[in-house]
């Protein structure tokens, strides 16, 4: 679960990204359901995610893949492979904070003894301006 500042974005370990928005009473309403794909193939097992304006970074469960996704279209624009970070397991946590560095993602895994900072170019982190 993450937010783009207006809506809540959610996954259910499927290949879909759900967008919810509060109505006038504060109840969340489903606004959209988007299939996340890489070159036309659905990406199953969407897990933890982080919104980095204007893109979404999503961990694919039980893999070493981090995907940069367009949250409107569901298109995967970039894939990072984390296999070189930790010999066992896979990532299960992702975070972004400008206080850590404007082009830096932090990833961790359930069985990882450390967190890793991934320094990316601004274009890789957020896509083309």
Structure report:
It is a single chain. By secondary structure, the chain is mainly β. 4% of the residues lie in helices and 50% in strands. The protein has a 4-stranded antiparallel sheet, with no helix packed on it. A hairpin with a 5-residue loop joins strand 3 and strand 4.
SSE topology string: EEEEEEEEEEEEEH
**Which strand-content bin applies to the residues?**
over 45%
Helix content: under 10%
Q: What does the overall shape look like?
A: globular
**Counting H and I runs of at least 4 residues, what is the number of helices?**
1
Tell me the number of strands.
13
Order of strands, main sheet, comes to: 1-2-3-4
In angstroms, what separates the terminal alpha carbons?
25 Å
User: What oligomeric assembly is this protein in?
Assistant: single chain
Mean pLDDT: 92
Rg, Cα atoms, Å? 15 Å
Low-confidence stretches: none
- By secondary-structure content and strand pairing, the structural class works out as mainly beta
Largest sheet: number of strands, sense, barrel closure: 4 strands, antiparallel
In short:
4% of the residues lie in helices and 50% in strands. With 129 residues, it is mainly β.
Structure keywords:
129 residues, mainly beta, four-stranded antiparallel sheet, 13 strands, 4% helix
